Amino acid sequence: EVQLVESGGGLVQPGGSLRLSCAASGFPFGLYTLTWVRQAPGKGLEWVSTIHSSGRTTYTDSVKGRFTVSRDNTKRTLYLQMNSLQPEDTAVYYCALPSGSRGQGTQVTVSS
């Protein structure tokens, strides 16, 4: 059974940083493309970043230069380092597989 468990969210002031984690099980982690998506209040899902099994990364324009996605295949964990956070980054963040499977999410709130 595929399991994805996000953690690391919280309340942070504008300009602050957070590091999200996604612990995975139930599939060959190292072989999979992994994605972070987010859902802001009242809005649909938005793609944030993807990391391929090769390590190649891509980002949506609004987070380029501020967010960094990484993975530790030995720990079966996906990460999202978020710096220079802005109020518009407020959302529930999910890690997801190409199939669409995703975890329960972790809330990120950026507010003064």
Report on the architecture of this protein:
- The chain has 112 residues and is mainly β.
- Helix content is 0%, strand content 49%.
- It has no helices and ten strands.
- The protein has a six-stranded mixed sheet, with no helix packed on it. The protein has a four-stranded antiparallel sheet with strand order 1-3-8-7, with no helix packed on it.
- 29% of the residues are buried.
- The mean pLDDT is 97.
Strand tally:
10
Structural class: mainly beta
Task: Name the helix and strand elements from N-terminus to C-terminus, one letter apiece.
Answer: EEEEEEEEEE
**What global shape is seen?**
globular
Strand content: over 45%
- Terminal-residue CA separation: 40 Å
Radius of gyration computed on alpha carbons? 13 Å
Order of strands, widest sheet: 2-10-9-4-5-6
| Overall average pLDDT | 97
State the helicity in percent bands.
under 10%
Query: The biggest beta sheet, please?
Result: 6 strands, mixed
Number of helices: 0
The poorly predicted ranges are none
